Structures are given as C-alpha cells and as structure tokens.
Amino acid sequence: MVRARREARTKSMPDNNIAENVPRCVSLGRKIFLFAGSDSGGERAAAMYARIGTCILNDIDPRAYLDYVLTHIAGHKINRIDELLPWHVADKLHTPGSPPDAAT
User: Fold this and answer.
1) 64 neighbors 93 (Cβ within 8 angstroms)
2) pTM of the predicted model, to two decimals?
C-alpha cells in the first residue's frame, strides 16, 4: 500500500533533472576557470561557454557553429559581427552526418 502510494506520487511529480544539472556545470566551469591563466583568459573561456550553451539551447551543433565562425570571422566586418550569432547562421550550418554546403 505504501509502495503504491509512493510510486503514484513519483509518477505525478515533474522531472527537474535539467534544473539539478545546471549547478554542476557552474561548479565545473569554476574549476576550469582557475586554470585559464588570467582574468582575460577566464573571460574568453566564459564567452566560449556562453556561445556553446546558446547553440545547445537553439538546437544547433556547437562544433559546426564554431567551425563556420572560425572560418568566416577573418573576412567579416566588425560592425556586422552580430551576423555571426548562432541563430543567424543556423541555416548555413551542416549537420554532422551531412557534407558541408559547397556555397559556403
């Protein structure tokens, strides 16, 4: 009887795994930032983590995004840098299983 009530209660409770995993990423990042070398290195690492997190939240492959940005940033104008944000280049990225587009 008690077991049946406990199972019924756990089935009706919402899953909060995502909320529980967020602090783990923060603590892992804190340990990694200790070895960034300097404050500016830590800021650069935090910016990279933010870009990768943005890609994940927008269902974009982070590796394909970074590959695209790193190959196109040298010839890109600084006043149009927002065109390289993940949601702006999502349609130009190839998925890991498909070959890159010849037009890019």
Assistant:
1) yes
2) 0.56
